Amino acid sequence: MTAYAYEARNRKGELFTGRVSAESRREAARQIRAKGLWVASLEELGHGRHFPALARIKAMAAPQPSRLLVVLFCRQLAVMLSAGMPVHEALKALRTGKDSSYQQLLDKLLAAVMQGKSLHEAMQGFPKVFSARIVSLVKAGEVAGTLDVMFLRLADFLEKSYAAQAKLKSVLLYPLILGVTTLVAFAFMTVFVLPTFSVMLTSLHTELPLPTRLLLAVSALVLAHGPELFLVSVAVLVLAAYAWQQEGVRRRLDRWCLRLPLYGRLVCFAEWLMLLGTLAVLLENGIRLPAALALLPEVTANCYLRLVLQEARQAVERGLPLHASLCACPGFPAVLGEMVLAGEKSGELEVMLAKAAEFCRVVVQNESRRLQALAEPAAIFLVGGLVFFFVLSIILPLLGMMDALT
């Protein structure tokens, strides 16, 4: 007997998945049709057992929906859920029947939901499409019973994040092209031109300027130890990737990232925008504060802020107020602490948390514009500095040689 995995549809077009055991593929198809289903796909499970690596490669090579489609998914689902449609009915309504990666994703989500899984559990099966943050927010929305509000917040956040990243990429495109061209030219000059230039300069028996000596030293180092330098670079990258997977290292790096000028402030307020907004939604729907704080660490990808939230939950469980629990941690801005304190004193904590999230949104927008305005001139300045150093290293000895001849 051979096991087969199948996907099949009924007369209404609903998708079903499962496994059957049969002597042959034809017998497996007959068993599926006996259930009143039409076979959409039928795959022998033995291939997956004998060639697991091939199956993983096939899954990785499958086309994935773009980030814009994920934003569209959140926006459409928010509208349908706010109209009172159940999750499975909303997923059915989103399907158009066209054969695309997006439609395949919807079919698989619908099949998982029809099998009894919650929506966040179904989304967990697609980590390349839905990040851990998205899944955590959906889970929080399911717990609070406000899945439509959470999807609306997700759509707004993802849409603005995508627009900001696209704008930053377009701003940095010209400096990036200029920088790559400069580095390629620098490598070409270092390997092919500078050795001949070095022989000419040393034959003059004159003291070379400091920029020229530095450039010639770099050229000699690359020519003499090129393979070793390449291996060392690869080893450093591998060690950096390994260190990034360690919880302690990741926590220190995330904490340091929050302290960076400009970018750190942007990241800090962007994280608290999602955290405080999610906490406000949970409290508005009757979730007690300790239980709501227990859900928050999964919302952020910052390991340091996860620790901050865990310590805040423990402090709240010991009887401390929320603002004191959060303000005890350096990763929480003081202005937000004042707003949380005002909410606790007035008895409208969820309202002040929502206003604090809106304040974070304004700060993020302002810091994003400032960072984008500074990114292009800063990149051009760095590239221009490299070009100036290279030209100066070559021009200075020539000017000195001309002075000696005159």
Automatic annotation (TrEMBL):
UniProt subcellular location: Cell inner membrane; Cell membrane
GO cellular component annotations of the record: plasma membrane
Domain of life: Bacteria
Residue spans crossing the bilayer: 171-194, 214-242, 262-283, 289-309, 378-399
Swiss-Prot/TrEMBL GO biological process terms: protein secretion
Keywords, sorted A to Z: Cell inner membrane, Cell membrane, Membrane, Transmembrane, Transmembrane helix, Transport
Topology class, membrane: Multi-pass membrane protein
Main localisation: membrane
Gene3D superfamilies, per the entry: Type II secretion system (T2SS), domain F
PANTHER family: GENERAL SECRETION PATHWAY PROTEIN (PTHR30012), TYPE II SECRETION SYSTEM PROTEIN F-RELATED (PTHR30012:SF0)
Family: Belongs to the GSP F family.
Protein name: Type II secretion system F family protein
